[in-house]
Every structure is written in structure tokens, then in C-alpha cells.
Please model this.
Amino acid sequence: MYLLDGDIGKRKTDAIARTKEQLQVISKNEVSPEGKQVIAGKPKTFVVERIVGKKVIKGKVYYLTKWKGWKEVTEEPRTTLIKMIPKLIQEYEQTH
Model:
């Protein structure tokens, strides 16, 4: 899940949370929908639990990433994860 805060082009926004299923705009006076994992306010810190797989899509490497506290596995680009968790990437590459 990603949080964008501030202006997007000419459009003024309070906060935008992007999930796999949707892009949702939440103003400060709006209540988050029930059952949806949407960030309203300050973004949380997400911690990678482990790398569970690897894919190559159009020549770019993506890691299947399991996040601590989340059931879903996401595809994250290597270019992003190598900055965040270089040791986990190295360990995964050495064992697979």
C-alpha cells in the first residue's frame, strides 16, 4: 500500500492510498470504508518478513514479498527492495 500526500498535477488532495484493488482518495472528514486496509493520516512503516519468490517481467526483476502482519504477497521491483533490504535480497539469491 502506498500513500501519496499533497497535490497531484492540478488536483488538490488530502491523502491518497493505493491498494492492489483500487486507488482511493480520502479527505480529512471522510470515514474509511469498513473492511478495507486504507491509510488515513500518517503512513505506517511496513516491514518485509521474507522473500518468497522471484519473477522476471519484460526484463525487470520482481521479488514476491511477504510483509510482516499482512497475508498478501506483493510483487516488488528489485530496484526498490535492494535499497531497503539488501541483505535479504542477497540471502535469497544465495539460497535459490
